[in-house]
């Protein structure tokens, strides 16, 4: 874990018996689940920032059922075989992060998210896997050394361009996943009078777009509990009228998954 740096003074973090510490004696203990909390209190804007525990648990249930398997496999294919270090920023409960680690057993993979509940879930199920480290941290102030990552992935997560640029090695890759124009079109059509098309993310400063890929497939959710998990994990959950929510839960959910994958190179 030579790539981690102290979130307080930005000096390198070294392992000790309790966890991690820098030369200025800033200590970060390893949680019993195996993760590190590298989010200083002064950088928290709420008591529990990020997604709620219940939402993350529903997300885990839905993803573990394999509904996003095609996206995960495509992302695994796009990561170069020579990758030594990878950061999954906004990792949530670790579905994609663990997937990267599984196909890159010799690489050091980091999963970072501001939501402690998500990182706790991710770390708890990966305690025995070497080369996989989870941290509670902000994607706007990454606890990583300059030019330390071969690949950074950003899957439906916010970030700061300058931080992405800082931590990625020269010539390294940035992979961003965003919704395509048909993503959950049926559901959006039931919620909004006018459905606005999703737009591609702007190229982050300091990067050039090298590749563009699309993963599109039908979504069929037959089980009621899975439909409930799906609704809970979407950003539309709080916009659903009770009548519409009941209608979706009571009948098979049919929609479209449409993901745009943009691969950028650092200048």
Q: Quickly give the structural class.
A: alpha/beta
Measured on Cα atoms, how large is the radius of gyration? 19 Å
Q: Which regions are unreliable across 5 or more consecutive residues at pLDDT < 50?
A: none
Quantity of strands, as a count? 11
Mean pLDDT across the residues is: 92
- Measured as a percent range, the helix fraction is 25-40%
Number of helices: 8
Keywords:
single chain; alpha/beta; 11 strands; globular
Can you put this structure into words, describing what you see?
- The protein is α/β, with parallel strands linked by helices and about 270 residues long.
- Helices cover about 25% and strands about 30% of the residues.
- The protein has eight helices and eleven strands.
- The chain has helices spanning about 55-65, 70-80, 95-105, 115-125, 160-165, 185-190, 225-235, 240-250, and strands spanning about 15, 20, 25-30, 35, 85-90, 110-115, 130-135, 150-155, 170-180, 205-220, 255-265.
- The strands form two sheets. It has an eight-stranded mixed beta sheet, sandwiched between helices. Strands 1-2-3 form a three-stranded antiparallel beta sheet, with no helix packed on it.
- Strand 5, helix 3 (about 95-105) and strand 6 form a beta-alpha-beta unit.
- It is globular and about 60 Å long.
- The protein starts with 13 loop residues before the first strand and ends with a strand.
- About 40% of the residues are buried.
- The model has no long low-confidence stretch (mean pLDDT about 90).
In short, what is this structure?
The protein has 267 residues and is of the alpha/beta class. It has helices spanning 53-64, 69-78, 95-103, 116-124, 161-167, 185-191, 224-233, 242-250, and strands at 14-15, 19-21, 27-29, 36-37, 85-89, 108-113, 132-136, 149-155, 168-179, 207-221, 253-266.
